[in-house]
Amino acid sequence: MTRVILFGGHGKIAMLTEPLLTQRGHEVTAIIRNPDHADAVRVTGATPLVADVEALDEAALAELIAGHDAVVWSAGAGGGNPARTLSVDRDAAIRTMDAAARAGVQRYVMVSYFGSSKEHGIDSAHSFWTYAEAKAAADEHLRASSLDWTVLGPSSLTLEPSTGGIDVHAEASGHVSRETVARVIAAVLNDATTIHRTIRFNDGEVPIAEAIRA
Questions:
Q1: Which pLDDT does position 30 carry in this prediction?
Q2: Which residues, other chains included, contact 16 with Cβ-Cβ below 8 Å and sequence gap of 6+?
Q3: Coil, helix or strand for 78?
Q4: CA angle 16, 20, 25 (to 5 degrees)
Q5: Which stretch of DSSP H or E encloses residue 211?
Q6: Is the Cβ–Cβ distance between 186 and 23 less than 8 Å?
Q7: pTM of the predicted model as reported, rounded to 2 decimal places
Q8: Are 192 and 209 in contact (CB under 8 A)?
Q9: Which is more confident, 176 or 121?
Q10: Could you give the strand order of the β-sheet that contains 107-111, starting from the edge strand earlier in sequence?
Q11: CA 46, CA 36: separation in Å to the nearest integer?
Q12: How far apart are CA 64 and CA 48, in angstroms?
């Protein structure tokens, strides 16, 4: 049994991930900002915990994370507000990494996106630029940390049912089901060969457990 703390616990991907983990016998703490979302989270088998990651400092986040075996970051500001994007997708994410190290919780899975890179190539005038910058900074901080990290880079997200397969060798972003992303999160948590790896993926034909294996 693994005790997982999942940030962004009411997001679309998180709500698909939580039942996968709880059905496998894991205990899941789902961090949510809005208490009105608690009942929906409980239905997945996860335990909701209301906390504002934007407001909590490293010490407070370490208290939340302590006692768990793994951290999954699937939170985000949702775009539209550059200041909040930096505050959540970069700054809060980085604080949870430092807090995990402080709490002695080594395993950390980051849900990023396919094109995340310091050389993302997005024009600074484009509305996506701030998000690209925030994610690149957070991912780089994680890779430079002492944590047992995995960075996941799913391509453009769809609401299609999962085929159960992915393509980890694609050179360009395509599409991937959110349900597939949830399955990949659950799979990498149980596969130590994914530690210290960045896995970018589209929908594909290779079964997830096989595709992610180093």
A1: 98
A2: 178, 179, 181, 182
A3: coil
A4: 145
A5: helix 208-211
A6: no
A7: 0.96
A8: no
A9: 176
A10: 47-50, 27-32, 3-7, 70-73, 107-111, 148-154, 197-203, 165-167, 206-207
A11: 15
A12: 12
Q: How many residues does the chain have?
A: 214
pLDDT tens by residue, 108-159: 999 999 999 887 878 788 778 999 999 999 999 999 999 999 999 999 999 9
- Report the 10 Å Cβ neighbour count for 50: 14
Going by C-beta distance under 8 Å and a sequence separation of 6 or more, which residues neighbour residue 171? none
Task: Indicate the DSSP class of residue 35.
Answer: G
**What is the C-alpha to C-alpha distance for residues 69 and 34, in angstroms, rounded to an integer?**
25
Neighbours of 195 (CB within 10 A): 16
**Average pLDDT of the residues of the chain:** 96
Strand 175-177 and strand 27-32: the pairing is unpaired
Whether 85 and 25 have beta carbons less than 8 Å apart is answered as: no
d(CA 160, CA 153): 18
CA distance 76 to 138: 12
